[in-house]
Specification:
By secondary structure, this protein is of the alpha+beta class. The strands form 3 sheets. It has a 3-stranded antiparallel sheet. The chain has a 3-stranded antiparallel sheet with strand order 6-7-8. The protein has one domain: Cytochrome-c3 Hydrogenase, chain B (Orthogonal Bundle).
Length: about 375
């Protein structure tokens, strides 16, 4: 629809947020409405900007590692993995096998925890209150594993450059296996509540459609891209941390609507359990990694990306042969995926905006950095 300079008498400009309960953070969306129909939007971000990338250029490589946990704070383990892989590539080193397998277990547990938070809050936005209690009940069990491992539940600083932060605690494997056995039936329980629920289907099907070509145009990745039928997952396409050794599927959708994005994420949680079970059975003995206290990479630059719960999370690091990065830039999936919001909501209703923001699964700490 062409932009007009002056508002028609039937048009209304409405601020949704940054305090709106369904924006999943401090996001301000300026809605241009014709009655209840959305004819244009503008996202205003920056309310949570903390200059993380510039901080990275003024800290040593090891000092900066905990800062990345504060970007997507519901997937801190994934943030840490991407950063460690980038610095390790600069140093031309690899984490030992024991560390690699443990990293896979912890990041997949983190993917489940992130998707559970998304599902609970997304359902709550649309009016279903029960799933949020169910999802937080299971997410608590993942957080207990993180707490036992490194003492943190949310901003989980699990990895160090070159390996792991800590050795595994006694009973780690048993606790992870017990979680997997308990969790799979729970996913079926969520689906019984929602998948064929008439209200859920009516609110999600055909809403916020984004085709595969539009996803590529906007740079959208993760479950949003796969729901549009594009089978692209960095764990398969550009394997890291030994993901090529694991047997798992990449769930995709067909319609690229909000309902397909829900189905894809539900399937991803099941696939994460599948990966975790394989990894737990093959944790090798050996060191967890050793890195010198002073990291001083040779002059050069790297870009390393991983498949975070929300999409492609990339780190661009430039070294000038000093103890601090010369340049540090992050490619956060939430920030890039948010670009597509305007395209997804145009022509929909105000109520659809709530469903579509939820289905993008954005975290504003990552959007603003």
């Amino acid at each position: 629809m062409p932009e007009t300079t002056f508002l028609d008498s039937t048009e209304l400009v409405l601020n949704m947020g940054p305090q709106h309960p369904s924006t999943h953070g401090v996001l301000r969306v300026i809605l241009k409405l014709d009655g209840e129909k959305v004819i244009g939007t503008e996202c205003v971000i920056g309310y949570l900007h903390r200059g993380v990338e510039k901080i990275g250029e003024n800290r040593t490589y090891q000092q900066f590692a905990p800062y990345v946990d504060r970007m997507d704070y519901v997937a801190a383990v994934s943030n840490g993995l991407g950063y460690c892989l980038a610095v390790e590539k600069l140093l031309n080193i690899e984490a030992p096998p024991r560390a690699q397998v443990t990293r896979v277990i912890l990041t997949e547990l983190n993917r489940i925890a992130s998707h559970l938070l998304w599902l609970g809050t997304h359902a709550l936005d649309i009016g279903a209150i029960t799933p949020v209690f169910y999802c937080f009940r299971e997410r608590e069990e993942v957080l207990k594993i993180f707490e036992n491992y490194c003492g943190a539940r949310l901003t989980t600083h699990a990895f160090r450059v070159g390996g792991l932060q800590y050795e595994l605690y006694d009973g780690f494997e048993q606790q992870v296996k017990a979680f997997c056995d308990m969790f799979l039936p729970k996913v079926d329980e969520y689906e019984e509540l929602l998948t064929n629920n008439r209200i859920w289907v009516a609110r999600l099907k055909g809403v916020g459609i984004l085709t595969g070509d539009e996803c590529k145009e906007f740079g959208v990745t993760g479950p949003v891209l796969r729901a549009a039928g594009v089978k692209w997952d960095l764990r398969k396409a550009q394997p890291y941390s030994g993901y090529e050794q694991y047997d798992f599927d990449v769930p995709t959708g067909e319609n690229g609507d909000t309902y397909d994005r829900y189905i894809v994420r539900m399937q991803e949680m099941r696939q994460s359990v599948r990966i975790i079970r394989q990894a737990v059975d093959r944790i090798p003995a050996g060191p967890i990694g050793k890195t010198p206290k002073v990291i001083k990479p040779a002059t050069g630059e790297v870009y390393v990306s991983i498949e975070a719960p929300k999409g492609e999370l990339g780190y661009f690091v430039v070294s000038d042969n000093s103890t601090q990065p010369y340049r540090m830039r992050v490619r956060p999936p939430s920030f890039v995926n948010l670009q597509a919001l305007d395209r997804m909501v145009r022509g929909g209703l105000v109520a659809d905006v709530v469903a579509i923001i939820g289905t993008l699964d954005i975290v504003l700490g990552e959007v603003d950095r």
